[in-house]
Specification:
Blueprint lengths: L3 H10 L2 H6 L5 E3 L2 E4 L11 E4 L4 E4 L5 E2 L1 H8 L4 H11 L11 H6 L2 H22 L1 H13 L4 H6 L3 E3 L5 H8 L4 H6 L3 E5 L5 E5 L4 E7 L5 E8 L9 E3 L15 H11 L2 E4 L2 H10 L4 E3 L7 H8 L4 E6 L3 H16 L3 E6 L6 H7 L2 H11 L1 E2 H13 L3 H16 L4 H15 L3 H29 L14 H16 L3 E11 L5 E11 H11 L7 H16 L5 H6 L3 H12 L23 H30 L5 H20 L6
Parallel strand pairs: 12-13, 12-14, 14-15
Antiparallel strand pairs: 1-2, 2-3, 3-4, 4-5, 6-9, 7-8, 9-10, 10-11, 15-16, 17-18
Amino acid sequence: MISKTTIDQVYETARLEEVIGDFMQLKKSGSNFKGLSPFTDERTPSFMVSPVKQIWKDFSSGKGGNVVAFLMEHEHFTYPEAIKYLAKKYNIEVEETEQTDEQKEQANERESMYLVSEYAQKYFTRTLWDSEPGKAIGLTYFKERGFTDDTIKKFGLGYSLDEWEAFTRTALGKGYKLEFLEKTGLTIVKEQAGGENKTFDRFKGRVMFPIHSMSGRVLGFGGRILSNDKKAAKYLNSPESEIYHKSKVLYGIYYAKQAIAKEDNCFLVEGYTDVIQMYQSGVENVVSSSGTALTPEQIRLINRLTKNITVLFDGDAAGLRASLRGIDLILEQGMNVKICTFPEGEDPDSFAKNNTYEDLVQYLSENAKDFIQFKTSLLAEEAASDPIKRADTVRDIVNSISKIPDRIRQEIYVQECAKIMQVSEDVLYNTLAQIDKKLQTDTAKKVKQEQKAFEVVKTDRVVEKVDVQYELERKIIEVLLLYGNQKQEFEDLVLKENEEGELVLEPEVIQAKVYEKVFLDLQDDEIELSNEQFKTIYYKLIEKLNEDTNFSVSTFLSELDQETVSQVSSILMEEEQYVLHDWERRDIYPKGKNIGVAQLVGETILTLRCNLIKNRIQKLQEKTQDQQGDNTEVLEEIVNYLQLNKLLNAKLNRVLS
């Protein structure tokens, strides 16, 4: 278990905007930051980060919380893992007591798979550096590739012995379960006659490339065989598992994320060694799709960090043609894409190895073509003097342009294409319109089919009523969180009888802290919050504000469970979505929320009283309808409540209908 001292230090040191900035691109928006949601596929940013409150809210998915909640949602960390990740990031020493065997047993399946993968990475690295076969075979191979000791260690490269059960036997001896060795794909289990299981190391006799998540967790492995066994695949990847989904992972993203955000560009290559060699050469903003076709999920991963991708290809023409499909996928995501090809016989790995950093950067800069220029030059060469092929080429290019969601960019590319292919813009616009029309027709057909398949009886739309009590209780929590410790001058209302014998509300000015005013008013009226979650937050807030004169939201959040943290974040961030900022430049000065706190508190409590009185009147009226006989007392009570309700609404400048 991690000590409270460590947890407190982590919360005090960690900066939410820095941590989230490691995983996605954030842009300043007034006093907050905005970005595209990492949880949904959105085009307009609705993910907000408040550096002042140290909380975030994703309005597209409804998720929110503090820095730990983000890591738990985004990286699927457990609470202790999130704390350890932050401690490592901010160089904080973690004080913890050793886990018992019982606690280890209770670790969930997903966590067990992560632990197994992390152990495997350490085992393969140790085998590479410490065993004779590791040094003679694995280390020699990496050195021949031109990798330095520092690079090999940084990327956690390793070697799996050319023995059937070397890794499995060692892992089982260390207490790791065969169930999780099999589920991560590190061990292959085959049932033998008689019910006994035979185990094999999946990566036997291979050099190992660990594949990390964006936060640095080991998800799986890629292994390259070094023998001349023609039956065995040259490269072998971990199978799909609970923690490893090949289509959602990019090799090198953990090491490249900061450089991608800084350079505002991502170089996309094909293989593991391409990434490592370029990184070693000084070009750190580079990732690989691990030799598979590019997927929308992988593109969205890059999209969180930058809008710009430069795809690097070797000189293989056949490979180029096949890769054009990936470019269309990038365009569909609204990203800017460039393509750079290396001279024949060269790939990113060999070119980076044989050239200086300056030469590499210069080559990439001078030879990166806009996708339209690249595609037209590539396809135009193939179509050369064949009119039919030429027409197909134009159609192919226009089809790519149709994938771009931005109309202005579409128009610019149409003009560019018309110039290069010597075709009139009108023809290209007509073709573009035909493609759009076909897409709309196909979409409409699909929707119609889905509606037919799930046809239901149409019902009248139910208008959802606003739960006034819920909204008022929520507002009380917001007021306490934002202004609880502020001292204000309040106008208290005392119910008195005037000379004519009428009930009137007389104002009395008092000075008090906001939380004291709220607590005493609710206590005097014997009001309890009806929402259980709000009630829990309310009493915790009152207790904390009473104890701590230096109350801060971030410290308060660190002491709550993650479900409550998410609820509190939603309360605090709801209005931030529509906040006005930078208006002063235009000589417009909107009223700040902190101006008129006393009025806000007073009106919220008065409105709560009015709502409770209204509900009480309603119940009394129902009682008179159900009750037979003399209702005089009940009717008198109703009249008194109506009179009080009238006075309170008059104070709120409301007219009762």
